[in-house]
Amino acid sequence: MFEEIITLARKKDLISDEHFSVDGTLVQAWASQKSFRPRDEDNQPPSEKAGRNAERNFHGEKRLNDTHESKTDPDARIYKKSKGSEAKMAYLGHTLMENRNGLIVGARISHATGTAERDTAVELLATLPGEHRKTVGADKNYDTADFIARCRTIKITPHVAQNEGYQVSMKVRERVEEPFGWGKTVGPIRQVMVRGLDRVNMAFNLTFIGWNLRRMGNIQGRCA
What we know:
- The structure is a single chain.
- The protein folds into two domains: 2-30 and 90-223, Nucleotidyltransferase, domain 5; 32-71, no CATH class.
- Mean pLDDT is 88; it is low at 45-50.
- It is of the alpha/beta class.
- Helix content is 33%, strand content 21%.
- It has helices at 2-11, 116-126, 145-153, 166-173, 177-185, 197-223, and strands at 19-28, 36-38, 68-70, 77-79, 88-98, 104-111, 134-137, 156-159.
- It starts with a helix and ends with a helix.
């Protein structure tokens, strides 16, 4: 369904085939902190005395994704989007936006890891049609030698940090935050109500189907 909407937008000449932006956002999982337990721990229900929502004291406990998992959603990961922010059970959501009208041409959920934003961005960029050279705007999280090199191998010129064209791309790519904001206020992706990578990915894609239909309606309304 997502691809059908993109195909329709291309037929109506609403999508740039040259200039794009990428970004990522934290999507809170439908899993609590207390469900994040050692992988080898028996998944036994709490005692009647403790109750279903018994508190757990995590003080002094080293909890890592390598050694722990959520017993309610094993695909979720404990993750901080930035230093000083609260760690949450989460996924990372990624979008690829064309810069002409702010339509989302690629959307994907991944496990929340330190390299997921860059890895998934390259995967989404590689799906773009055409062998011509394209550009992508991205924020400082993408300013790594590896990301830049991988983009160039697929004929994508990255506009990150101090690279040529950065300032122009940054003014345009500010719009890449708008779909996330819409998806977390109007849509359901602030905290998803499904579990598992595949189901969360489906909810994420359905959200941006809605965004694209809304944008296309607004654009065509202005042109009518």
